[in-house]
Amino acid sequence: MSTKQIIYLALIAVILVGLALFPFMTQDDSTFNLVILVFLYMTLASSWNILGGYTGQTNLGHAAFFGAGSLATRLLWVGGFPAVPSILAGGVIAVALALAIGIPAFKLKGVYFAIGTLALALILNITIGNVFPEMSYNPAISDYQIVPRYYLFLGLTVITIAAAYFLVNSRWGLGMMAVREGEEAAESLGISALRHKLLALAASAFFAGLAGSAFAYYHVSYYLNMPFGPEWTFDPMMMAYIGGTGTVIGPIIGSIFFVGLKQLLVWNVGEYHLIIFGVLFILIVLFLPGGLVEAWKKYQRWFTRWYQRRNTSPRNVIGTGHLP
Amino acid sequence: MGFLRVEGLNKAFGGLKAVNNLNFEVAEGEILGIIGPNGSGKTTTLNLVTGFLTPTSGKITFRGEDITGLPRYRISQKGIARTFQLCKPFLDFTALQNVMVGRAYGQDPSGNLKTAAVESAEILELVGMASKSNVLVSDLTVMERKRLELARALATRPVLLLLDEFMAGLNPKEADEACGLITRIRAGNVTIIMVEHIVKAVCCISNRVLVLNMGSKIAEGSPDDITHDPQVIEVYLGKSHAQH
Hints:
Chain A is mainly α.
């Protein structure tokens, strides 16, 4: 192992230990809720990124998988099932739904998948709202504890990010990226584009579904169609773009940045924060398509060059043409 | 039983017959050139053999097995590789990563990515790109991209390689290099079909040449025979030249 890898591993270990000990440092519910929100977004943005960032397939209906997971879990749990199998069922239902839309949509070329997923989420949002118009209350409301929910979200986030990391660094991950870079060329080298897209979609939907399940276990009261709302697609997507799509770290940074900035703006400008986010998203897509990760890389390259020039330029020689 | 056998191949795009009742065979170990003027069906033929297009009718047999209409990635896994007329590299990848894709998939793929990386580096060296292995594709020149395209196709361990206008856009010196490269690949027991627009580029290295015009075969034979065939001269240069 190289020194760099050891430093990274140590850093990750420190962060994980810190997060594991976090409940011993605070009792404040609003702090917990804020951190849980960041975890939830990290899971959604990272799972969206597996398909959208690494495989190049734009999913405009991530909320459908998030919603399906939350719906399945909430209904089972309210119906008397134990929490753990209810949560796992949410992930499975999301994958089933993903394959049902993905297999026909991916067999067609072009934008059908993007439109199909967008429509799926919208239809489910409206339908579920009509079928279940009542507010849903948490079955554990009399004995509600935030700490186990905090650990559930922490575990889910770590597993999602680790799974994304190992998937994209595997042979399948290389194949997925090749499909993104050029489907024809990838297939000419022996890659089945359909199979890679479906695998990425299934993984993406599975973790989005689990995020929905955790949400259903966590949230005290909400309308059952609320997790199908478009904000659960577009916010995580924007986070992935802000941080940098097609990188493991991008969605993590993006989620922290997004939630932090949103808090700051909501305090100061209220509802106008939506406009600011819209403009920010457009600016990033136009000028920084690789997000903050790309910005950091550019800065590093610039810094290295500047540093080399500073140490090698013959400053004491007159007339070398160097500007001060 | 031939190595590759094409029988009664037809491809129609609406009313246009791009390939019309084409029959030919390729023997193991040879370099077959396919030439013809614009729109004669050369690239369509290549796309049909590699599964990028499905024939309207006809049969393609590879090593005794019917491969007509198989998905293109299955054809690649059977040992038939191709390059594209306009290079299609994976732009966000380094040269090495590009080749690794072919090595990780294709025929007889490497068990893991580490082995794939080692074997891919060897292939890059074979095409003279060892020093560019960690360079992003966007920083490569046209000739380097062509070499990379070739390396990537070779990484799938093909027994049959189809080159689509590989010589196009190269200057005479580069074309000479490319000829050397193709001859070297052929020496590694790879049968080659090269589709070219330029007669000269093919004739210097092909064992046999097939001439297409309007989707049909008009001549077949050694490069020498082909260049003296009146019909070939006619389709390239017009009737008046053919009479001389």
